[in-house]
Amino acid sequence: MKFFIDTANLEQIKEAQDMGILDGVTTNPSLMAKEGITGTDNIMKHYVNICNLVDGDVSAEVISTDYEGMVREGEALAELHEQIVVKLPMIKDGVKACKYFYDKGIKTNMTLVFSAGQALLAAKAGATYVSPFIGRLDDISTDGLNLIAEIRMIYDNYGFETEILAASVRHTMHVIDCAKLGADVMTGPLSSITGLLNHPLTDIGLEKFLADYKKGN
Ligand code: E4P
């Protein structure tokens, strides 16, 4: 299972990268705005900074909602760095643009996916990643994890190679449940990754080992 971090915050990206367990980064316009990164030039520079911090794929989202605009923007983003994955919205023109980038050998991430049917379309269009938003489904009392299970079944039925990128992960149990269901990737905040470290028996056990070592020395 690949671990992506869902942020545009360079310190948090560096912290996850330094742990040696980071496989990539996802961003979106809201995450950029949260870090105060505004204006096309600054946003483009920030993507390059992120790519220079990590080894893996970095999803960069287009703002256009029409096919021509998505192609233009996506090509500019892909030219920024070899690690860039063009992130496209799950709308008709997004699917068409996804197929365009597939034919050109440019990686894509179909975002804002909330149903199995949308995930099927993403796979048909040759998306590298499909991003079902599990947290936002949970927010409206719909089972986000069930969507991961449905997509896994459908993709396995036909051998689709599109990777299931469980997005809108909010906490450690989302990560563990997505791993059980066979999601290929998860993207979440730093806390959903570092939270996996926590167990009181680890802390108690380590404390005792260190105390016993001191007794004998
Ligand atoms: C995915 O790529 C999105 O950036 C993200 O996971 C959305 O998460 P949120 O629902 O917590 O905003």
TrEMBL record:
HAMAP family: Transaldolase_3b. It is found in: Cytoplasm. The lineage of its organism: Bacteria, Pseudomonadati, Bacteroidota, Flavobacteriia, Flavobacteriales. Belongs to the transaldolase family. Type 3B subfamily. This is Probable transaldolase. The keyword Cytoplasm applies. It comes from Gelidibacter sediminis. Transaldolase is important for the balance of metabolites in the pentose-phosphate pathway. It catalyses: D-sedoheptulose 7-phosphate + D-glyceraldehyde 3-phosphate = D-erythrose 4-phosphate + beta-D-fructose 6-phosphate. The gene is tal.
